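agent> step 3/5: call structure_predict on target 'Response regulator' (Paraburkholderia unamae).
agent> reason: downstream docking stage needs a structural representation; sequence fetched in step 2, passing through unchanged.
tool.input:
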Amino acid sequence: MSAAHHVCVVDDDQSVRLALASLLRSLGYEVETFESGHDVLRWLAHHRTACVVSDLQMPGMSGLQMYEGMLDMGIDAPFVLITAYPTAEVEARAMAIGVRAFLTKPVSAQALAMHVRQAVAPAG
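tool.output (status=ok):
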């Protein structure tokens, strides 16, 4: 499958990571899973993806820090941020730097599907 149908899922909670990956695979996406921002940044240095879905709060590197790292690397893949602890301040910062969507856990399958579908759709 091409990078156009590829989604990276990043969450330190294995059960959430597997659930998100299972949902996205059921929608026809090829999915790579990672438990840390450092892991996905290493992978993205050598691979392409159409979209990244990431938890906000993770040990070592937050989802926002990971997205900033992607931008620093010149990787502009659409980014969907999820969190169990939403705040207006974090949401505003995320949207200001270009995060595609800010979703609250437990994530609605329909909302995630919609945002990923929009993120990977060809521009035009």
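agent> step 4/5: record observation. Residues 85 and 104 are 7 Å apart (CA to CA).
agent> proceeding.
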